[in-house]
Amino acid sequence: MLHLRGLSCRLIERTYPQRWIEHYNANGYALRDPIIGWCIEHVGTIRWSNPDLPDPYGIMERAAGFGLPFGASISLGPKDCRSIVSVARADRELEADELETLDNLGRHIHQLLPCELELTVKQREAIECVAAGMRMKQAAAFIGISDSALKIRFRSIREKLSARTNAEAIQRAKDYNLI
Fold this sequence. Notes:
This protein is of the alpha+beta class. The chain contains eight helices and five strands; from the N terminus they run ββααβαββααααα. Strands 2-1-5-4-3 form a five-stranded antiparallel beta sheet, with helices on both faces. It is elongated, with a radius of gyration of 20 Å. InterPro entries: Sig_transdc_resp-reg_C-effctor, TF_LuxR_autoind-bd_dom, TF_LuxR_autoind-bd_dom_sf, Tscrpt_reg_LuxR_C, WH-like_DNA-bd_sf.
């Protein structure tokens, strides 16, 4: 699953075999992946075996070598806020009902991920202090709120940015040009 906002990847969740993920990353396939390219340019569903899918780098053949010979992807949303969901099987092409399930799942996930992402003035103030190097206690004192109020702000920031930690929230806020 990828959720792209502009040129930033807001969410990536992968459950493919770890060996494939490591090989894919080590070889920089994301920028040459024919599925990602197709999904950025189109809305809809495509099977990985589609003969019209250009794959000059042979990435789909390499995926098959890692036990991912059959797959399909769905692309949803406008170009500036696109979600891509892909699934693969080792034994056969996905059937029509499985593609429909993929479509429904993709639409559900896409609706959960807002395309417009903004921090409130208070959230931005809090995250900017910590991003600048202040400890939580210092940031709370600087802003003039309690430690627990700052923790609540950061909880809402993490939720909004789909981050697990404050450090991850700060990095995502920077990546999305929110701070």
